[in-house]
Specification:
Its cofactor is Mg(2+). InterPro entries: DNA/RNA_endonuclease_AS, DNA/RNA_non-sp_Endonuclease_sf, Endo_G_ENPP1-like_dom, ENPP1-3/EXOG-like_nuc-like, His-Me_finger_sf, Non-specific_endonuclease. Its EC number is 3.1.30.-. Keywords: Endonuclease, Hydrolase, Magnesium, Metal-binding, Nuclease, Signal. The chain is an alpha+beta fold. The chain has two domains: about 30 residues; about 260 residues, Extracellular Endonuclease, Chain A (3-Layer(aba) Sandwich), CATH 3.40.570.10. About 35% of the residues lie in helices and about 20% in strands. The chain has a seven-stranded antiparallel β-sheet, with helices on both faces. It has a two-stranded antiparallel ribbon with strand order 1-13. It has a two-stranded antiparallel ribbon with strand order 5-6. A hairpin with a 4-residue loop joins strand 10 and strand 11. The N and C termini lie far apart (about 115 Å).
């Protein structure tokens, strides 16, 4: 016969074990979120926090076509990762832009940014994973989630960042495929806020890795109207922001900054670039060929 006390003890243990199992299950689900979108990361390995404070209240989100590490502290993404190839970009060219900025329903209400946070703020809603990279309507819709958006200086967003996004697509066409991690940094001693809720990044960055030549570099720009931008190495970025964005790269590739172009079509630093002849030279060649044909006639 089982005593009442023994039954009570067993029931209590069962409840505790069930609760622990549930917690472990939820933790594992959170940790394994990126397994559904591992193709967005080079080697299937996502960025690692060097500064563990940044991981506070973070949420991994698999989006259609890219992956996001979202921060409930800043109410912005910390970074978004993409895998780009020629086929994807060719498909993306066929889709016209449809703005559909929206709150991310998968996030707890307390962690979300809202559309009203950006209203009248003076900052653009800056995409981390760009709309122009998206190959389907579903991918495009996900790119307009506020989980992929951060407050961005208008001039930075519309000029500097637009150029480097185009340059990244140019590199993809040039070399066949690239992996990118685009993110934000908060390095100022005093951080601005939108509506006392959304933190304004001090910098934006875009890390680019080109497997064909095993080279990587990072575009790094202050989030202001200065139009300043520099190209740094993966290791230099890690020192600046406390995140190793491409942890599986070899040490040499991480320490050397590949001379990324600042505009699409810049080919002076690209070993395999195709340089087109100027139009006037083609015209001269055409005349020359015509004269030769006349002499032979």
């Amino acid at each position: 016969m089982i005593s009442f006390g023994r039954l009570k003890y067993d029931l209590k243990n069962s409840i505790i074990m069930a609760a622990m199992t549930a917690v472990i299950s939820l933790t594992s689900a959170h940790a394994d979120d990126f397994t559904q979108c591992s193709q967005s990361f080079y080697g299937g390995v996502y960025p690692e926090f060097i500064n563990t404070k940044l991981s506070n209240q973070t949420q991994a989100l698999c989006m259609d076509g890219f992956a996001v590490m979202y921060s409930g502290v800043s109410r912005t993404p910390l970074w978004s990762a993409e895998y780009l190839n020629r086929d994807r970009l060719q498909q993306a060219k066929q889709i016209d832009r449809e703005d559909s900025f929206h709150e991310e329903s998968r996030l707890p209400q307390s962690m979300r940014a809202s559309l009203s946070d950006y209203s009248g703020s003076g900052y653009d809603r800056g995409h981390l994973a760009p709309n122009a990279d998206m190959a389907t309507r579903s991918q495009q819709y996900d790119s307009f989630s506020l989980a992929n958006i951060a407050p961005q200086s208008p001039r930075n967003n519309r000029y500097i960042w637009r150029n480097i996004e185009s340059a990244t697509r140019y590199l993809t066409q040039q070399y066949g495929e690239v992996y990118t991690v685009t993110g934000v940094a908060f390095t100022d001693k005093k951080t601005k806020q939108l509506a006392d809720r959304v933190l304004v990044p001090s910098h934006f960055f875009k890390a680019v890795y080109i497997p064909a030549i095993n080279q990587a570099g990072v575009y790094y720009a202050p989030n202001d109207e200065s139009e300043r931008i520099e190209v740094i190495s993966i290791d230099e970025l890690a020192t600046e922001i406390g995140v190793d964005v491409l942890p599986v790269l070899d040490a040499k590739t991480k320490t050397q900054a590949f001379a990324l172009p600042l505009k699409a079509g810049e080919s002076s630093d690209l070993p395999d670039a195709t340089i087109e002849e100027p139009a006037w030279m083609l015209f001269v060649f055409a005349i020359f060929e015509w004269l030769l044909a006349q002499l032979r006639a």
